[in-house]
Give the backbone structure.
Amino acid sequence: MDELMAQRVAKVDALRAAGIDPYPPRSTRSHTAAEVTALVEQLPEGVTESSQIVDVAGRVVARRDMGKATFVDLQDSSGRIQVLLRQNHLTNYDHLKFVDLGDFIGVHGSPILTRTGQPTVAASGWSMLSKALHAPPEKFHGLSDVEVRQRQRYLDLMANEEARHVFTTRSKVVAAIRRFLDGRGFLEVETPVLQEAAGGAAARPFATYYNALDEQRFLRISLELHLKRLVVGGFDRVYELGRIFRNEGFGMKYNPEFTMLETYEAYTDYVGVARMVEDMVSSVAHEVLGRMSFSFRGHEIDLTPPWRRITFRDALIEYGGPDLEQFDTANTLRAELSLRGVDIGANTGFGKLADLAMSHYVEPQLIQPTFLLDYPIELSPLAKRKPDNPRLVERFEVFIGGFELGNAYTELNDPIDQRERFEEQLRLRAEGDDEAELMDEDFLVALEHGMPPTGGFGMGIDRLLMVLTEQPSVRDVILFPQHRTVKE
């Protein structure tokens, strides 16, 4: 125990010796800090004290001792309120010597306006609610160590108003998305996290063991295959906001555990889904932020629909990449990218090579909201082929700020074609591609019962929040991102 903590523990002991519980089981609060401030601001001209008595509570974030009076700032989730504690108004004024920054106290008193125009509670009583054994982060410079902020998010929220704003905004954005989809007749559902086959995306799953069944299970890497089972079952519009787990590394855009929105709508296609997506994101931004344009990474981004649409092939050509109609095999595309100095892996198939080319040439250029359309079939084992070009599928990815935000298909509903695509994925897995899709036999059986034409969409909520709150990393919008264990 360090010296400062020992001093605080000694104050805990002193409070108990004085017959005061430093951690009482309950407290009274009638008003938040913001509500008291509003009461004071509503006082008539020339009136400086409210007739109403309030009970406020919060963390002590500032203290100013002035002889026979002490000013304390209390902070709760609504903001700060100043408290005036005077010796001649309190029987336990002397016990303020046990109060440190970081402690929680409750105050009973009258809202007043001080001579300096500060909304304040003039205390007629106060009580200790929780004695903090550690000092809070230094108030003037906040908490700047990024890893500490992420590992000990409670300290980040305690010290940084911006962090509190980001995560309040996150909650509001999720609620607004729900309202948007509910208003369009979508049904929110929940699907299994533990799955027999982790399908629906090209990613490595986390594996676990189901003791009761004596079988291996996987944490889901996508919501897709179970949601499409529900479309087969007769729900025409479904969505889920759920946690996804992908056994991959960390990065500015990546966290192994993240939140995904997926929607599936019968009797539409990727064109209809694109219209829904631009309407949803723009309306959510307008509802939560009050605007549809903002700065992100030095660019002014405008979410006003309609958003730009360009094909995968045309975008590669426009931004200096290879033409996929000229380099239309894995060997020719590999040779061309190698000649251009693009970093490619060994034994990389055509689909991954095309994706590498897109990531290298196109993705960083897509700053304004853009739908990138019509992907090579090798990249999209769950999407429907384009009728006029069977080498492409009806798929888009949506980009904002230079990275992908979401992905959509006209869903493949031909069970024979789907089985052949899964078998091709198994062949790629056997050749060493551990991100290739796993076979999901039960999903195939469901598809064999018939699924109507359907448009599906998936979007990372965390990446959307990066854009809307202008944060540099996905880890800044996840309350508790994953970290390597600190070894003693």
Summary: The chain has two domains: 3-136, 157-307+368-476. The longest strand covers residues 54-65. The mean pLDDT is 93.
